[in-house]
Amino acid sequence: MSISICLLGTDGLLLAADSRLSLISEDRKSTHTENNSQKLFRITDNMGIVSIGTHEDYRKYVLGKIIEHYENTKEIATVEKVVEIMKSDYLLRVSGFNDSTMRRVSFQMVSIIAGYNGNKPYIISCDSGADYGLLPFALGKRPFRCIHGMDTIADYWIKKLNIDVKLEEGVSITYLKKLATLLIVESASFMDSIGLPIQMATISKKKGFQFIGKSEIDSLIIGLEHKVAKMEL
Question: pTM (2 decimals)?
Fold first, then answer.
């Protein structure tokens, strides 16, 4: 299970994910892992998406369709339109499968769509593939954070640091970068299905969507070492 994160701060949104891709053999007797799976994408200047799921190629394909749509139309990006594109493509693909086929072929994908509608930030959780397409996209608005694939390690740190309380009170993007790094690094140290490097981006009202560079992420990881030992952030 991968991990994807979106957090809201006082000066913007932060998106993050791990990079591990696990490929299971047809006989399900062996697993091959790679650490180059792209899970974080820019849609427009004011919107990004972080997505994890069982099918790497399908995820890239459908997210590519969304990005291509906005590049071609120059529309203002809206969550409703993004979900419409994802939902119509998903339903089109599964409509040709019967029940037995759907049990073998899954296009399940969970995504977090985040950005700004004017001055108002939003975080939308979007789940496809639930119940074999019966409920392909259930939208849920979460005001401060959304984490998919959260394991007990991430859950432990959230409780330990009173993160929900901190987020509600308001924290900076600087804090969110450290927090996302902690959750992913610690999860990766205990879960074989989660692996570095970390992918990270911010979205702010003034600067829009910006990827965080490798050197800054490496510095964040190094800076965590003594903080983890002290059980703090």
Answer: 0.86
